[in-house]
Write a structure and sequence with these properties.
Distance between the termini: 68 Å
CATH topology of the largest domain: Beta-Lactamase
CATH superfamily of the largest domain: PAS domain
Low-confidence stretches: none
Radius of gyration: 54 Å
Mean pLDDT: 81
Shape: rod-shaped
Number of helices: 13
Strand content: 15-25%
Number of domains: 3
CATH class of the largest domain: Alpha Beta
CATH architecture of the largest domain: 2-Layer Sandwich
Helix content: 55-70%
Strand order of the largest sheet: 2-1-5-4-3
Order of helices and strands: HHHEEHEEEHHHHHEHEEHEEHHEE
Number of strands: 12
């Protein structure tokens, strides 16, 4: 295994929250143990040294009172058993007259010693200094005698370092106990803190945050899960619609193809009579036209679906332009006038010029499908009205007819693909079942709203507001 493999393995390793909490608490306990021990030692030393200074001051005052009643201070000091104390007699000029631990003649001038200088100035002085013995501190207390000389007594006491060193084993045991206790406590706490986090169910739509700090994260998880559920539902609906659409397309294509194939086969085999050839040819032409219309509508819907999916309108239908809805309505009416007369329906266009920004071909498809439906499902002697006028301050196209109308329960479904209120009548009249679906998508392409009003036996009105 190469070094890069080890690096990648280490980089992919995730941090454990429980481990992080555990290590943090153990480290904190160890640090607290050390700091508390050191701080306690320092405080203890301060209090201890204060007591020692107080005791030294009392002993120094006792010796000074004794020396003030005698004439030979050196001999008196030499005759005393001072124990751990060290006595030093210093002349006003700093010259050492006597020292209980060393030869006075070999000692340097003591006028620069803080306690000596303070005693000469104020009558009494004290100080602490590191001792010649490593790990110890010398405590000094000095007092001026009536003769002008200064008596200084001192004692050595262990410093913090010496104190900690002497009890090192005990400190190690105490620290170990604290760390073990911290380990047990931290393990329990880490598990207790991490457990509610691990119990968060990201698959739940209403997961709750166990801690206030996690509320934004859990809220976002809930939102993302809701979005995912909605998207999955939309994908499932789209898949169901696609399967249904494919099935319907296959069925719709088979019908005219079967009719064309059957009629052509009869003509080819010479089975039909010469007088019937024209009738069969007409049937083939009619079914071919229906097949062509169906394919055109399917291609149009596919392009509209792709436009809605990609969100780029110009790439499919070209750049939008300023279109006069009145001009579109008149062009459609002129093109379908013959079909209306053949169906015994009167077609009329009224209104004013209304401009919208859009695609001319799609707007023509929209109006054309609405008008064709109104003609196809009308009655003999019926009327179709196309109005172009502003409604609620918005450009609008309204197509009304006096036809058969749409049942109330079927109205929400008429804009679905291949939906027919009366399937037999629709096929007989040449409808593909995709006209209103194209109207719906063309309206959505132009951000328009569709309103449907219909009553059986009275007629239907469809309004498109841009």
């Amino acid at each position: 295994m190469t070094g890069d493999s080890f690096t990648n393995k280490g980089a992919s390793r995730k941090l454990s929250l429980t481990r992080q909490i555990f290590l943090s608490i153990v480290a904190a306990c160890a640090a607290v143990a050390i700091v508390v021990t050191a701080a306690s030692a320092v405080l203890f030393q301060g209090a201890f040294f204060a007591d020692e200074h107080e005791q030294l001051a009392g002993e120094c005052a006792t010796l000074c009172s004794l020396l003030d009643r005698t004439d030979n201070d050196e001999d008196v000091l030499a005759s005393l058993d001072l124990g751990q104390l060290r006595a030093t007699l210093v002349a006003p000029d700093g010259h050492v007259l006597y020292d209980s631990r060393a030869d006075a003649s070999e000692l340097p001038n003591h006028s620069d010693r803080p306690e000596i200088a303070q005693a000469l100035a104020d009558g009494e002085g004290f100080s602490d200094r590191s001792s010649e013995t490593v790990g110890y501190v010398s405590l000094y207390n000095a007092r001026r005698l009536s003769s002008g000389d200064v008596l200084r007594i001192s004692v050595e006491r262990a410093s913090v370092v010496a104190f900690l060193s002497s009890d090192f084993a005990l400190l190690v045991i105490i620290s170990a106990v604290v760390v073990v206790a911290g380990w047990l406590v931290s393990r329990h706490l880490a598990a207790g803190i991490a457990r509610p986090i691990l119990e968060i169910d990201p698959a739940s739509l209403d997961a709750s945050a166990p801690y206030e700090e996690l509320e934004p994260l859990v809220s976002r998880l809930n939102d993302q899960h809701s979005q995912l559920v909605r998207r999955m539902s939309a994908i499932q609906d789209a898949n169901d619609m696609r399967r249904e659409f494919t099935s319907n397309v296959t069925h719709e294509l088979k019908t005219p193809i079967a009719s064309i194939s059957g009629a052509a086969e009869l003509i080819r085999d010479g089975i039909c009579r010469p007088d019937d050839v024209q009738d069969f040819a007409g049937r083939i032409y009619k079914d071919a036209q229906r097949l062509s219309s169906l394919v055109s509508d399917i291609l149009m819907l596919s392009k509209l679906d792709e436009t809605e999916r990609v969100g780029e309108r110009d790439s499919m239908f070209g750049p939008s332009e300023r279109i006069d809805l009145m001009g579109v309505a008149r062009d459609v009416a002129a093109r379908l006038e013959r079909k209306a007369r053949k169906a015994g329906v009167t077609l009329k266009v009224e209104g004013v010029c209304s401009y919208v920004q859009g695609n001319a071909r799609l707007l023509d498809e929209l109006v054309s499908n609405l008008v064709e439906n109104s003609i196809r499902y009308n009655k003999k002697g019926g009327r179709v009205f196309v109005w172009v006028l502003p409604i609620e301050g918005r450009p609008a196209v309204r197509v009304s007819d006096t036809g058969i109308g749409i049942p109330k329960e079927a109205q929400p479904k008429v804009f679905e693909r291949f939906y027919r209120v009366d399937k037999g009548r629709s096929r007989d009249m040449g409808g593909t079942g995709l006209g209103l679906a194209i109207v719906k998508h063309a309206a959505a392409f132009h951000d328009a709203d569709i309103r449907l009003e219909s009553e059986e036996g009275v007629g239907t009105t469809v309004t498109v507001l841009f």
